[in-house]
Amino acid sequence: MKEDRDQASRSRVTKKTMTLPWELIIEILLRLPVKTLVRFKCVCKSWLLLLSDPHFATSHFELASSRTHRHRLVLIAPSSVPQILSIDFNESLHSDSDSTSLGLNFLPPGSYHNLQIIGSCRGFLLLNSCQTLWVWNPSTGVHKKVFSSPVESNMNAMFFTLFYGFGYDPSKDDYLVVKASCNPFSGCNATWVQFFSLRDSTWRDIEASHLSYNLLSSECFSKGLFLNGAIHWLGFPNGVSMNDVVAFDVTERSFSEIPLRVDFEGDIGYCDLGVFGELLSVYCGVGRGHSVEIWVMKEYKVESSWTKTIVVSCEDIPTGYFFLISSTKDGDIVGTDGNCGLAKCNGKGELLEYRSYWNNPCGSQMVAHAESLLSLT
Predict the structure, then answer these.
(1) pTM of the model
(2) Rounded CA separation 226/223 (Å)
(3) Helices then strands, each counted (H, E), the chain
């Protein structure tokens, strides 16, 4: 009897020792990666309810955002059965230990060939699939279709998309899809700028009468970069040279212009915006594409703070191209080769690693995104 009582006592002590306060469990879970938390939803009902709570998702994202370089890369190679990969670019490009294959089962069959990534914001990606827009969280699979705008629904007119943007308005806890279209056959080259509110599922017009459709497009359409509460595009006011970065404040619903330095020069066919150390940057090809200059705006919206930070040599990259994506926690930079490969360079612009992921004649789409448990409801 005494042995039974001792064993029961030890069992109670063990159970008591292993039980943590609920508040401490929450603090621990808030610091774990999204992939782990998704698996932990199966632990018990109380954990499922906690990890599905929008307030927990917001707290987790804000805590992760306070720690820099918690981003991953999503790579999509469009085809009849697209190849989709999520990788940790802070690790070696040749390591597959933290790579994850993803799926897009919500897209209609046959819509993968022209799949494009056209925006990234708070863990969500904006996808364009056969002129239909989708917002997708690659960490959780949450997705939502963006309804066609009234401009697109007008079957009696022909419109061309000039630019897209995707951002978040914290004042309304709302995600916005911004789109500009023009009808070159209208006689006045009128431009319509609209935004779609995911919270309200409605399109609204934006006053942008001063914008020319030549302003923001060096290719078929321009993709905006969301940073510092605004969506940014490179400006081409005369189609020949760049003068400004055009910014759309998501909360104020207004456009402004951020001047580039007067001595900034580059090939407008080989230039775009990027992020370097959480700062707005512009990269451009120089010297007939043999190298790429990366300029960083060290103080946001201050023209004099533009600084040429790194010159990347493209000679050792098989395609001869380098398109900046982001920087790592160690200060290296990662970019795409314009096809299906990634290149990692050090702070001197010297190639450290290169890897081609697929052999796809259509190339690939690549973007950095923050992992999140956030939903769209």
Answers:
(1) 0.85
(2) 10
(3) 6, 25
